[in-house]
Amino acid sequence: MEEANLTRFQPASFHLTGFPGLEPFHAWISIPFCALYFTSILGNCTILLIVAQDRRLHEPMYFFLCMLSLNDLGVSLSTLPTVLAIFCFGLRDVAFDACLAQMFFIHSFSFMESGILLAMSFDRFVAICKPLRYSSTLTNPRIARIGLAIVLKSTVMLFPFPFLIKRLPICQSNVLSHAYCLHPDMMRLACADITVNNIYGFFVVLFTYGLDSTFIIVSYILILKAVLNIASREQRRKALNTCVSHICAVLTFYVPIIAVSMLHRFGKNAPHVVHIMMSNVYLFVPPLLNPIIYSVKTKEIRKGILRILA
Fold first, then answer.
1. G-protein coupled receptors family 1 profile domain: which residues (predicted)?
2. Rounded to an integer, what distance in angstroms lies between the CA atom of residue 95 and that of residue 75?
3. Residue 27 pLDDT > 90
4. Could you tell me the pTM of the whole model?
5. What does the alpha-carbon distance between residue 29 and residue 87 come to, in Å, rounded to a whole number?
6. Which candidate among 57, 66, 76, 143 keeps its CA 20 to 30 Å from the CA of 112?
7. Residue 5: pLDDT over 50
């Protein structure tokens, strides 16, 4: 009997809204979204192709860059089915279990990106602060283990999320605020106590974004201290220049997250469309900008692009 009640209070599907009130313009909105997806996927695939083809780039820095590109592809492909279904075909309903799966992958890839950026900051720390130990510290097997640890950490941390949602009776509505499924959006539809979801969600965010960003800041404090001890101005400039791309990637990832958090906390009176736009920026901007940043700021990647275009 209890099982039957639980099933009755779980909708067969969720209704995704996209941009409420702008339904007549969805055909036009689909154009920038399609361009965004095309550019993101093309840019990240280009980075992977360049590194795979040039054996001179088979170094720790570029292996971590490939991890970032693979992860950005994962973020784009996680949101792509429902976003394009809404804006291109007007299909708004997604099955309950499919929504849970999308939620899991979106959050997992987001947390993995934080871990990869931390690993990249460690790479820069070793390269600048302990250059003589760089090759012996960041060996290929160790890089592989770091990548595996990032995937396992994110997967294990996110594994309870679908079950935490599935235990809740969804009896208020089945309408979600975005064009994709997110944990905070789904748990707000429950007509039961969501304290466990809130506490565990806060713990996961603190344990991933909080710790990772703290260690990234500490690594750059140590890097800056080491750079300031270099006598030559030209060598200081070269050392810092190797970090510019990573610093831009970190800002591209964390600034939207902080902005979304601040908006949810202090901007409750802001128009609903502003909340939706910021959530889209948080998910779509890093996969778009990361390949551009590394293409502009990394000479080897620029040369690889020119070879492909030649």
1. 43-294
2. 20
3. no
4. 0.92
5. 7
6. 57
7. no
